Amino acid sequence: MAVAQEGNSQSQYIREIVSGIWQHKWLVVGFAVVGLLVGIVQLHRAPRTYTVTLRVASVALEQAQTRGGADRITGLAALAGVALPSTGNGIGFELYQAGLTGRPAAEVLAKQPDFMRTMFAAEWDDASKRWREPKSFMRPIRQFFSRLIGAPVMPWEPPDAARVQDALNGLVTVSKSAASPIVTISVRVPNPNWGRQFLSKLHSAVDGALRDKSLDRANRYIDYLNQELVGTTTTDVRASLVATLIDQEKQRMLASSGLDYAADPLEAPVASRGPTSPNPTQVIGLYTFLFLVLGMGAAFLLAQLKMGVGDVVDRVRGLFRRPRPPAMAVDRWQVTPKS
């Protein structure tokens, strides 16, 4: 009986909440309208960003080798002391994707003054022609709370390769699928023209760094093989070294051609026709929903003002109170025998 009474009390209180909100439904509607207007204002204030994409595919870098020559190189690798680098386009393409946010590409971009001034425009003083710390009202507050909790406070430094790499990690998105060999590189920036230039420079920096590394490796292998050929008289070993030398010459030729080395762009970077952020539906819907919830809370509190504070507290406690187990019935005719 006690459990049923407490359950009925909770149900009645929930009905009173719904009834109180319904009595002030126009207040809820008013809050929703305010949320709609706030969402529209925020939509106009939010910066527009465009999505710029670059689609690339792997460049075939595998050297032309006969099966017999490859077998001879594999069988005599220990004898000749030659460990050939992998020139498969799969590995080169994976290195390209990893290098899009790597330090070598950041160092190449950091050496381009015009690019740096555009990327960190808020920190460049065109009048004095030097970098300066941007003014921020929130920066001292963040530093204060960081010191308060013992977190490290990093001082401002002019943009360098490290900061460019941090920017790359936040800007660049790489999308790939197992069903397609095409990889899509995308960035979201306020200026679509700068975004197209950025992706072009980034591709050139990453692909060029891989090309230079492969060219340097091929040159070193060629020098080593030439030295081994001078002192080798065994016919089979010389044949393997010559075959390896020919392969490395092909590798050096590919790296020296000036063409795309690891990734081949299918087209020039493409920018979206219009802003892709902020999303009007999401922004307006979010603010409308938040203010709708606030309106329901205000309507509930307004309805509770008609009740006593103590009554409200008791009802709220009743919602979370555990129901008591029913008392055990005692037979009044039962007599406990005396010992």
Structure overview:
Helix 1 packs across helix 12, helix 6 (103-110) crosses helix 10 (192-231) and helix 10 runs antiparallel to helix 11 (235-256). This protein has 339 residues and is of the alpha+beta class. The longest helix has 40 residues, at 192-231. 60% of the residues lie in helices and 10% in strands. The protein has two domains: 2-46 and 280-320; 50-102 and 173-271, Bacterial polysaccharide co-polymerase-like (2-Layer Sandwich), CATH 3.30.1890. It is elongated, with a radius of gyration of 36 Å. The protein starts with a helix and ends in a 19-residue tail after the last helix. Strands 1, 4, 5, 6 and 7 form a five-stranded antiparallel sheet that branches. Strands 2-3 form a two-stranded antiparallel sheet. It is built from 13 helices and seven strands.
